[in-house]
# Entry
Amino acid sequence: MMTRLMTATAVLALATPALADTAERRIALSNNYAGNSWRQAMLESWEKVTGQAVADGVVAEAPAFTTAENQATEQAAQIQNMILEGYDAIVVNAASPTALNGAVKEACDAGIVVVSFDGIVTEPCAYRIAVDFQEMGRKQVEYLSGRLPEGGNLLEIRGLAGVFVDDEISAGIHAGVEQFPQFSIAGSVHGDWAQDVAQRAVAGILPSLPDDIVGVVTQGGDGYGAAQAFAAAGREMPIIVMGNRQDELLWWKEQRDASGYETMSVSIAPGVSTLAFWVAQQVLDGQTVPQDLIVPFLEIQQDGLDAALEATPEGGVANVEYSLEDAQAVIAGASN
Amino acid sequence: MMATTWTRPWFWAFAAAALAFAATVVLTGVQGAGGLLVAALTFASFSVLVGLGQMAVITMGPGNVDLSIPAVMTLAGTLSLKLMGGAAGTELWGLLAALGIGLGAGVANYALIWLLRIPPIIATLSASFVFQSVAIWSNRGLRIKPPVSLAEFSTGSTLGVPNAAWIGLAAALVFWMLIERTAYGRRLSAIGQNARAARLAGVPVEGVRAATYVLSAVMAALAGFLLSCFSGGAALNMGAEYLLMSIAVVVIGGSSIAGGNSNVPGIWGAALFMFLIVSMLNSYGLGAGVRLILTGVIIVAIVVAASGRRLTP
# Structure
């Protein structure tokens, strides 16, 4: 009897390697904001992947919670509630890199695994799945240097003033301009990562810019608005780096079909929430995971445009959902 | 004539807008002036639409402000574009749906204020959570394109003036008639000057309040509809800019923040100024920090100048 049970367990363990240990574990998502399409896609990816994981018996449950007001104090209270409710791991997209550290430390002290992603926390006991925002900015200028070896004037569209991400991407762009000094930034506006705000800001600065703007470097969610503003002003269309939104990709395809327009698109896939889920699962499973991991970019090049556009829901954002194997690859990459 | 123009409360908003325009044109040269003016007229018109509604609400005196404007814009834009689904021949239904949503939102706001006796600030703020949640729930942030005809209309021009600006001008004209030439306008000012005196004089205070909150929500819905057609789709955060904007254009435009005194032309002057000041500071290449500080300082200066002039008849 005993032997037969052990055999059954051994067979099960073979079928789902390294999963059985977390079947009773509960993982919660603490999210600070849901008011844009990227965050909505992020939550949908979480639901989809964790729903499947729960059905497969990988974890017991994995609910998502979003705060109403995008306030650090509110999210700290939310994390404290999660501690009281006895979750085994908390995956967090944080409202602030530092303001949640107290609550995160409490969770760690209670033996809870904390994995932060996108909006990371600096508390050393938490795991961080960070985006290399500087590289995201630098890469755009590098791409433009390949397309336009002789250089020229660039327009920079920034995000929301005062937010850490905006400073980081912008620093990367400026580092890129230093690396490729044939480029210079002729003007800079804040587009708040929103097409309508970017459109307004670009329309306002265009009259004062020289006629030979060759490229527009962006932060995501602002490329389509910039294109609209250039078109409305009757200007020659520069190379606008896109940010993976479906309306941007669609516009790019229309321009490509009409006039052979070429550009690139780069952003972070909202499905990064699922990468964080698997990392939390791996930590609970007793695997050795480095505290600091880097999220891969989701880049779309000219030849991948049609496939990317087809896979992106209308009005949404290009996305990838990560699997356990992807998470293991990211962990292995960081461990070396 | 000059002396009277000079003392009008709206004078300072237009003067500031003209100065910001001139300062930018110095940099861009004359060839940039036309483009800048068209852009200013276009983008100011969205601020005008929400500003007019907010002005009517603020005119009713202390405590009256509509904080649900961003959420109503988002909800009206999202639902009406979803209803039209980008198909031709649905434009009228889309517009009616947007206005209907504004009507419903205004009624909901006023119901909270009147039935539950909640102060307007709290009522409109809490209602805006509901509106925003319905917008999220209905479409999860997907951007649906407007019908081509509406996209072309909202970005196009007639007689050299952007269509959006024509709508803003028409709305301003209607509001001017309403405020200056109708019993409703007189009652609105009476309530703002002294609600108790107005009630004793036989003004139907609650009726006017209800109409005003509905008016503000309908204007926000119209702005949301127009903006989402203009920018190629509704976004969940599209209204965020317009809460402070709607209040700023009222104050800069020379209306009294304490109520009882509204000023329609000033809304246009202030909306043009709010666009041109950002363009000017962007064009001079100033950083975001300096830009925000200067914007704040200049707004305070205009409000002081406008109110100072009004004290000396």
Chain A has two domains: 13-131+270-296+319-335, 133-267. Residues 193 and 221 of chain A are 5 Å apart (CA to CA). The interface with chain B takes residues 34-41, 44, 68, 158, 161-162, 187-190, 192, 194-197, 199-201, 203-208, 224-225, 228, 232-233, 245-247, 313-316 of chain A (CB under 8 Å).
